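Design job #97: recover the sequence.
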């Protein structure tokens, strides 16, 4: 049986071991943290060095990079700020004029521009597009349409024909239901591409088939899905048999 003196001695031993044990635990935790930070730093350096910038969240949006993992988030960030959106267009030598703000019921042209040069010309010229949609058009034009035209059609694109951007209406022009993205100039309906050598590739006439024109249209539709939020083509329904609907809406759709 332990004497009271022995109890006291053991108690003192435990008390004096405690700070030592916690010091060791601290030292271990600090070493682990330091190692983890060094490893994370090295990994970030490697990622930054070898992963293309369009796939990294911390690099700036650039029209010189193809759409990547974080392109949509960067487009949202730049496009979501009216001043930043315009600064970006300016910095990329894309000319535009301000569209006057019209608001009628659920429709508005707030934060809209009319693109005039620095991108493939739209026909009819200068439709009213929300600034974020204009950014998306510029990126799609440069990184999807132009390379696809060179590769598959062997020519540049002189102009892109469209059925309109801003239009004060609900989805499918119905009397009730959700406002269309067109109602805030956040959608563009592309009908045809006219090449520099004078060919006209239209969604209505050239979508079906195995030829270069059909391949081109599918390529620019698929590429649009990596740039715009919503893309609807003839594959979606008969209402889109003659155009590609490209929008900066709330939902991601690619059909
Ligand atoms: Zn549309």
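Job complete. Output follows.
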């Amino acid at each position: 049986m332990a004497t009271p003196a022995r109890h006291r001695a053991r108690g003192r031993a435990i008390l004096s071991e405690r700070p030592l044990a916690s010091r060791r635990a601290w030292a271990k935790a600090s070493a682990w943290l330091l190692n983890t930070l060094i490893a994370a730093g090295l990994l970030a350096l490697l990622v930054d060095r070898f992963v293309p910038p369009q796939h990294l969240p911390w690099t700036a949006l650039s029209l010189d990079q193809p759409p990547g993992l974080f392109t949509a988030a960067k487009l949202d960030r730049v496009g979501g700020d009216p001043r930043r959106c315009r600064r970006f267009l300016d910095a990329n030598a894309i000319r535009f004029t301000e569209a006057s703000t019209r608001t009628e019921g659920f429709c508005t042209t707030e934060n809209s521009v009319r693109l005039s040069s620095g991108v493939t010309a739209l026909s009819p010229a200068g439709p009213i597009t929300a600034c974020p949609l204009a950014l998306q058009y510029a990126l799609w034009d440069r990184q999807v349409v132009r390379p696809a035209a060179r590769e598959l059609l062997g020519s540049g694109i002189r102009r892109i024909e469209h059925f309109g951007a801003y239009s004060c209406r609900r989805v499918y022009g119905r009397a009730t239901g959700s406002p269309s993205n067109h109602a805030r100039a956040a959608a563009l309906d592309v009908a045809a591409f006219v090449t520099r050598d004078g060919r006209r590739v239209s969604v209505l006439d050239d979508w079906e088939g195995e030829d270069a024109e059909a391949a081109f249209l599918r390529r620019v539709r698929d590429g649009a899905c990596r740039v715009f939020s919503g893309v609807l083509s003839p594959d979606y329904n008969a209402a889109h048999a003659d155009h590609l609907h490209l929008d900066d809406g709330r939902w991601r759709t690619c059909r």
